[in-house]
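Technical note accompanying the year-one report. For the benefit of new consortium partners, we illustrate the data format agreed upon in the data management plan: each record pairs a sequence with a structure-token string. No post-processing was applied to the example shown here.
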Amino acid sequence: MIEDKLNEKVLQQVSIANALGVEFNVEKRQPDIILVGNPKTKKVAVMGTTDIDGQELLVAYLLNVKKWTWADDEGFSKDEIVEHFSKEIFTWISIDTVAEELMS
């Protein structure tokens, strides 16, 4: 199941950070969306699944927390934020480099 693969990938990235003495915060938002954050760098990644042409894939994005917070404070719903500001808020990264991205 794709959610199991996602959980394995999250655990892998958290383990990489732990091996370097860095602790991440992990929050499962839905079965297919997990937030991973580094409190020291204040960076957050969204790790999840998506369906492209009938194929389920694992994906990861860096989240621009400041832009998300601004949009949320302005009263935009989560759906509106994704629809109107996704290019400003989400930056695609390889799911295999989440730990590296969050620690840099």
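Partners are asked to follow this layout when depositing records. Residues 1 and 56 are 10 Å apart (CA to CA).
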